[in-house]
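*Target chain*
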Amino acid sequence: LGGRVAVAAAHASRDLSRGAAVDHTAAAEEGEAMSTRGAESGEASASDRRRASSSSALTSTSRGGGAPPPGALVLPSGGGMSLKGSAATRDKPTVAALFATARLLGAMVNGPVHDERMFTSFRGTMATRVAGAQVYLERAVQQGHHADPRDARADGITPGVLSSLILKLLHDLEDVLLTAKLHEAFLAAIKIQDYRSRLYVLRLLLERVPTDRMLALRALVDALAKLAPPPPPPEESDLGGDRYGGGEHGMASS
């Protein structure tokens, strides 16, 4: 009897050991699975955080809050060039009047003006004449036609009055003509040393200027070019005559 009890006890102990081993293995496998799932979850969270950080950085950069590398020229995105609706709406009549004024000035002059001062103050004694010219041009814009130089002169509108009106219209703009958003980019572009690169970047920036403002700028530049004095004639040294002994004789003898 004692032998049978000992054998039974031995079998029971062996079964308990096997069960404990199985339980230990299962626990180990479950722990490993939980660790794997935790690592995957941690990697997913880290990936999500990286994506969120990248998205936030891109958004911040597009809004002007990003920090570009030192010395980098950051071109504002094309989508950000439009002004706020209220500002753009308020400026449109002024920009249209500026375009009409500059166009009329360009049609009235073909060289420097000597009989009156140009681009003087639009205040003081000029205020009444400038106001009359503005009403005349705004009426022409509303009627959809360009002002005629002869009719304008008949109404007492002179190039000097128009130049003062241009100053007033530029002053009345809520945003600067080429937009404040492009201001820093233009300043950086003109500092580019290489001519071709500078020209390329300036063209990119000008393409981002709203169309009506660009038309007004073109008309203004054309008028200023007509008002500018002609360049002085080149000197003989610039033509290279002295280099060959002077004039045609020197060139022929060489």
User: Anything to note?
Assistant: The CA atoms of residues 241 and 248 lie 8 Å apart. The two ends are 141 Å apart (CA to CA).
